[in-house]
Design goal:
The structure is a single chain. By secondary structure, the chain is of the alpha/beta class. It has a domain at 5-139 and 224-292: Alpha/Beta hydrolase fold, catalytic domain (Rossmann fold, 3-Layer(aba) Sandwich). It has helices at residues 48-54, 82-96, 112-121, 142-152, 161-171, 180-188, 208-212, 216-232, 250-256, 280-292, and strands at 5-13, 16-25, 33-37, 59-63, 105-110, 128-134, 191-193, 199-201, 237-242, 264-268. Strand 1 (5-13) and strand 2 form a beta hairpin.
Length: 293
């Protein structure tokens, strides 16, 4: 089975330096680079199936965003926001694209990873050549955001892996139908065992602080900035939406097809927030857009 190489890069924030780990798939000299970035409480391992399917066409880079998985933490948790993540990705791309003939990448971003991609793709001279947004847009349902924020802030410990895996499965039912083996992987990727024997989630609990500081006024301002970023995107864009998504409304998705990069919209039935791209039919959607458009 094809496996990834684990690497890391040092990044900077206003509170100091931190390490960002990433998985690299495919040939190191392949000039075609695909960056895949996960959702707010997920990790790079989410893209294992997609990376294996595309690593002959691309050098696939899958980071653990700071505060998650194998990456370090920020000393100031209030910095767990999109601008910091975009900055970290610029540092990552400087490493990945160093001395390369091509200075562009394609991007697949799930939820938060899509917001990071939007932020980067909106900048002048952006390196993003093609953009896949997985169930995310500039307008986010407030109730769904609150649900995610509440989930992030639950500091829970599980006496066994099986109990932890059930918790992950129960809060991830919107992902749609998966086999028991797939649910096991989705849980194993985000649970780790402490020295005391308890199982905990992989991320810094400080991630919840920016969610807790959101006000109606700041949310309105953030939405305006996200739409401005989206409207500035020039590259071909694919928007994948879970047909039952409670985070990205169909109204917002349709608006995204009419403004900015005028994204191509594909909806996946029987799935909410967010499609996992573990299955062949979902992988085929991304593969077709990235390789044939």
């Amino acid at each position: 089975m094809i496996e990834a190489k684990m690497k890391s890069v040092q990044c900077f924030s206003l509170s100091g330096l931190h390490q960002m780990a990433y998985k690299e798939w495919g040939e190191a000299d392949n000039p075609n680079v695909l960056v895949c970035v996960h959702g707010v409480t997920r990790v790079s391992d989410d893209f294992d199936n997609l990376a294996r399917a595309l690593c002959k066409d691309y050098r696939v880079i899958c980071p653990d965003v700071v505060g998650r998985g194998r990456s370090g933490k920020l000393r100031n948790p209030q910095l767990y926001r999109i601008p910091q993540y975009v900055s970290d990705m610029v540092t990552l791309l400087a490493r990945v694209l160093a001395n390369g003939e091509r200075q562009t990448v394609d991007w697949v971003g799930t939820s938060m990873g899509g917001l990071i991609g939007m932020g980067l793709a909106s900048l002048p001279d952006s390196p993003v050549a093609k953009l896949v947004l997985n169930d995310i847009g500039p307008t986010l349902d407030a109730v769904a955001v609150q649900r995610i924020g509440d989930y992030i802030g639950q500091e829970v410990r599980f006496p066994t892996f099986e109990i932890g895996a059930k918790f992950v499965r129960d809060v991830s039912t919107t992902f749609g139908e998966h086999t028991d083996a797939e649910w096991h992987k989705l849980a194993a990727d985000v649970l780790r065992q402490e020295k005391e024997g308890y199982w905990v989630r992989h991320y810094d609990m400080g991630l919840a602080l920016p969610f807790q500081s959101v006000t109606p006024e700041s949310a309105k301002s953030d939405e305006a900035m996200l739409w401005a970023a989206y409207d500035a995107i020039k590259c071909p864009t694919l928007l994948v939406r879970g047909a039952n998504s409670d985070l990205l409304s169909r109204e917002t998705a349709l608006s995204m097809t009419q403004r900015g990069p005028k994204a191509k919209l594909i909806e996946i039935p029987g799935v909410g927030h967010a499609p996992t791209f573990l299955h062949d039919d979902q992988i085929a959607i991304a593969k077709d857009f990235l390789l044939n458009h």
